[in-house]
Specification:
The chain is of the alpha/beta class and 375 residues long. Helix content is 52%, strand content 14%. It contains 18 helices and 13 strands. The strands form three sheets. The chain has a six-stranded parallel β-sheet, with helices on both faces. Helix 1 crosses helix 18, helix 4 runs parallel beside helix 5 and helix 10 packs across helix 11.
Length: 375
């Protein structure tokens, strides 16, 4: 079992717990984080060596990453496991899975790459590399069935973790808001580049909203100390931002979401969390002009946010690139306050989607692994 980053370690630990119920003599070897190791997994390399992001950093580390993958390939071919499970990290795992499957070792890949959205040619490599794909989202499974890749939709662990009914009152009390306050959460992303482009824009949208609705209050969770410093500098430098009724938090994004009436959010996995928290949202994104020109040409779907992808229609506004102005974002946010029925309809749809994703993902994934082993 191989996890390359913290999110994979969480999924791997859940899967190990489910497999331990089925096998008394389970042995897990590969690359594991602290959660998986706490359950007995043996890590042949530190997981941190695989946790690289972006375009440049992986290239700098390419010789080391290739050496790790070669060592793992040789180890598992010499000591064949009953099954190899690669968790996410497709650029690293799929090449390893293809080599191991070629040597007769059954392979499972847990968490689909976004192959349905861009770089669709990867499906051929995936078909060669994996005996079974485990997807977190139902439309992903449909895509693999269309391409004759064995697949199981197991649901999303976040949907299992987040309660169907969120305690709004408790979240508001903990953040110093009252039941009558009108609260907007601002989530401009967790990476420095995202916050550089979206932080000032979201703050300008908040100023625009507060000029029209002075009673509005805003909450802004910072993903880590570096992002907090970055955001506080943006607040200090932006005219009018100092007058905002704004609470900046260290982390606590779920608390901020729970307390909010509406959310202005960067496109990404946090939109799924917001949907599961049952919150109306406006989704925005900006990237460097050249990157956007390339990315938009490669995209095979009309939507970028997970709620819209799940619904296969525009449930929530997506305001991207040059269209993402303070006025456009602010107007879309204020729509939720001016038309309460809009939010009510969304909450009903989000609740149904939460139920669909709430499948006890770890148990479902373990069932699929066992079925493959029995074959």
């Amino acid at each position: 079992m191989l996890a390359g980053e913290a999110s994979g370690d969480i999924l791997g630990a859940g899967l190990i717990q489910a497999l331990l119920k089925r096998f008394d003599n389970l042995e897990v070897v590969g690359i594991a984080g602290p959660r998986m190791q706490a359950l007995g997994a043996e890590s042949l390399f530190p997981m941190e060596r695989l946790s690289v992001m972006g375009l440049v950093e992986p290239l700098k580390r390419l010789p080391e990453l290739l050496k790790i993958r070669r060592t793992l390939r040789e180890h598992f071919i010499a000591n064949p496991p009953d099954v190899f499970i690669g968790i996410d990290s497709p650029d690293f795992n799929l090449g390893l899975e293809e080599a191991l499957r070629g040597a007769g070792i059954p392979t499972v890949h847990y968490v689909s790459p976004s192959v349905w959205a861009w770089r669709r040619g990867r499906i051929k490599k995936i078909a060669r590399a994996v005996d079974h794909m485990l997807t977190l989202l139902p439309f992903e499974a449909d895509f693999y069935r269309e391409h004759d890749v064995p697949v199981s939709f197991v649901g999303h662990p976040l949907a299992d973790e987040i309660p169907l009914e969120v305690d709004v009152e408790a979240a508001r009390q903990s953040l110093g808001f009252t039941a009558d306050d009108q609260v907007v959460a601002l989530l401009p992303g967790s990476r420095g580049g995202e916050v550089r482009l979206l932080g000032p824009l979201f703050l300008q949208a908040a100023i625009w909203c507060q000029q029209r609705r002075p009673a509005l209050k805003f909450v802004l969770p910072a993903a880590n100390p570096e992002r907090r410093q970055q955001l506080e500098q943006q607040i200090a430098e932006l005219p009018g931002a100092g007058e905002l009724s704004l609470t900046v938090l260290d982390g606590n994004s779920q608390q901020a979401l729970a307390a909010a009436d509406a959310v202005l959010i960067a496109s990404g996995t946090a939109t799924l969390e917001t949907m599961l928290m049952n919150k109306p949202m406006v989704v925005a994104y900006k990237m460097a002009t050249l990157s956007y020109a390339i990315f938009s040409r490669m995209l095979h779907t009309p939507w970028v946010s997970l709620p819209n992808l799940l619904a296969q229609r525009e449930l929530v506004p997506e305001i991207l690139q040059d269209d993402a102005t303070p006025e456009a974002l602010g107007g879309a946010v204020l729509n939720y306050f001016e038309d309460p029925l809009l939010g009510d309809r969304l909450r009903r749809e989000f609740s149904e989607m939460h139920q669909e994703l709430r499948r006890n993902a770890s148990e479902k994934a373990a069932d699929a692994v066992c079925a493959l082993l029995q074959k």
